[in-house]
C-alpha cells in the first residue's frame, strides 16, 4: 500500500449532525492567494446564470433529456484535446473510450486510470469529460479509460454496474490492479468509491488508489440541510440533489443508506485523494468521508480550493487552478502506481 499523507479536516470520527450544522473546519487550503481571471469569470457565470437556472428548472424525467442534449451541444463547441489518441470501445449497453498520451505507454500493464464522469447521474458523457480525461493522460503518461455509463432516468445502481464492468474490462485486458487508479468528479466521484466497494464484494482485486474531485459520497440530502455551504454553493442547489436521489435511488422506496460510499466498510481501501471547493455543498461529503477513512485506517488527503466552484477542474480543465489541481492528481496517480512498477522490476 502506498504511504500517502493522512490529512483530515477534523480529528477522529465526528457525528454527522455535528458536521452538518457546524462551520467547516479549516482543511488544506491549496490556493490561498488570488484567483485567476478565468476562475472569477467561471464563478460569475455560475452565480449569475447556472445557479439561478438549476434552482428554477425542475429535475425530472421530462427535463433530463433536454438538459443532456443542451450540455452535449455546449461540449461540441470546445476543440478536441491535443496530444492524445482515442480508441472507442463498446460494451453491453454503453460506450467507453481509451485516451492514450502521444508518446506515452500504450500497454495497460504499465498502469491506467479509470475515469468516471460527473453530471448528476443524468447528463454529460465522453465528449464533455474528454478534456479532463486527456489532461490526466498527458500528465501521467498513462492510458485513461473514459466511461459513458448508463444514466438517469435509470438507477444509480445500474451506473455502478457499468463502472464495475469497465473495471473488469481493464483487468481482462492486462491491467495490473496494483497500477490502476479510479478517479471521477461529482457523481463520478460517487461511482469511483462505489466501483471499488462493489469490486471487493465481487472478489475482484482493489485498485491502487481512488481520486474524488468534488465527489458526491453521501446520498442523504436531508443530512446536508443544516450545512453552512448550502447557502454558499455557487450553483448546486440542495433541492436539485434531492431530485437526483429521488429519481435514482428512492424511486422504489426509502433511500438505502448502504448505497452511499461513506456508510460502507472502508477498511482496507486503497489510498484516497479528495479535492473540493472550499464553499461548495459537497464539501460536506468529503469532510465526512475523511472522518470515515481515517477511522478505518485508510491513508487519505483532502485538499480545498478557495474561490472555486463545484467540479471546477472538469468544467474548465484549462483554467490555471484546474491545471494545478490536475497536476496534483497526476502526482497522486504516479505515487500510487510506482511502487508496483518497482516491485515488478526488482
**Pairing-aware structural class of the strands and helices?**
alpha/beta
Query: Count of DSSP E strands?
Result: 9
- First-last Cα distance: 17 Å
How confident overall, as mean pLDDT? 90
Strand order of the largest sheet: 1-9-8-7-6-4-5-3-2
Let me know the largest β-sheet. 9 strands, mixed
> Order of helices and strands, N to C?
HEHHEEEHEHEHEHEHEHH
**Number of helices, counting only DSSP H or I runs of 4 residues or more:** 10
Helical residue percent band: 40-55%
- The radius of gyration is 19 Å
Beta-strand percentage range? 5-15%
Explain what this protein looks like in three dimensions.
With 346 residues, the protein is of the alpha/beta class. It is built from ten helices and nine strands. A nine-stranded mixed beta sheet has the order 1-9-8-7-6-4-5-3-2, with helices on both faces. Helix 5 crosses helix 6. The N terminus is likely disordered.
Give the gist of this structure.
The protein is of the alpha/beta class and 346 residues long. The protein has helices spanning 16-21, 37-56, 63-75, 126-140, 156-172, 187-201, 238-249, 283-295, 312-315, 320-345, and strands spanning 28-29, 84-91, 94-101, 112-116, 144-148, 180-185, 209-213, 272-277, 300-305. It is built from ten helices and nine strands.
Amino acid at each position: 500500500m502506498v504511504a500517502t499523507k493522512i490529512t483530515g479536516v477534523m480529528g477522529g470520527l465526528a457525528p454527522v449532525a455535528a458536521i452538518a450544522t457546524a462551520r467547516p473546519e479549516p482543511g488544506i487550503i491549496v490556493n490561498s492567494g488570488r484567483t485567476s481571471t478565468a476562475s472569477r469569470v467561471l464563478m460569475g457565470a455560475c452565480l449569475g446564470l447556472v445557479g439561478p437556472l438549476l434552482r428554477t428548472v425542475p429535475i425530472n424525467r421530462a427535463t433530463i433529456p433536454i438538459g443532456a442534449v443542451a450540455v452535449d451541444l455546449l461540449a461540441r463547441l470546445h476543440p478536441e484535446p491535443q496530444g492524445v489518441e482515442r480508441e472507442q470501445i463498446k460494451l453491453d449497453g454503453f460506450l467507453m473510450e481509451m485516451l492514450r498520451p502521444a508518446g506515452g505507454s500504450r500497454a495497460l500493464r504499465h498502469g491506467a486510470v479509470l475515469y468516471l464522469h460527473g453530471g448528476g447521474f443524468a447528463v454529460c458523457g465522453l465528449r464533455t469529460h474528454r478534456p479532463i480525461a486527456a489532461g490526466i493522460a498527458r500528465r501521467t503518461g498513462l492510458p485513461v479509460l473514459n466511461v459513458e455509463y448508463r444514466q438517469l432516468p435509470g438507477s444509480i445502481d445500474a451506473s455502478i454496474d457499468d463502472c464495475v464492468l469497465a473495471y473488469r474490462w481493464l483487468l481482462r485486458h492486462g491491467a495490473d490492479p496494483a497500477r490502476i487508479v479510479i478517479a471521477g468528479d461529482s457523481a463520478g466521484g460517487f461511482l469511483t468509491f462505489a466501483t471499488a466497494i462493489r469490486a471487493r464484494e465481487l472478489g475482484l482485486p482493489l485498485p491502487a488508489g481512488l481520486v474524488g474531485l468534488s465527489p458526491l459520497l453521501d446520498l442523504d440530502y436531508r443530512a446536508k440541510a443544516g450545512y453552512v455551504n448550502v447557502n454558499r454553493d455557487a450553483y448546486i442547489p440542495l433541492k436539485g440533489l434531492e431530485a437526483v436521489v429521488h429519481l435514482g435511488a428512492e424511486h422504489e422506496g426509502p433511500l438505502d443508506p448502504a448505497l452511499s460510499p461513506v456508510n460502507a466498510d472502508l477498511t482496507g481501501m486503497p489510498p484516497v485523494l479528495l479535492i473540493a471547493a472550499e464553499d461548495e455543498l459537497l464539501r460536506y461529503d468529503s469532510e465526512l468521508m475523511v472522518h470515515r477513512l481515517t477511522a478505518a485506517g485508510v491513508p487519505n488527503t483532502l485538499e480545498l480550493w478557495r474561490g472555486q466552484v463545484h467540479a471546477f477542474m472538469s468544467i474548465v480543465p484549462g483554467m490555471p487552478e484546474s491545471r494545478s489541481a490536475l497536476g496534483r492528481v497526476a502526482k497522486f496517480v504516479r505515487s500510487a502506481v510506482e511502487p508496483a512498477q518497482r516491485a515488478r522490476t526488482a
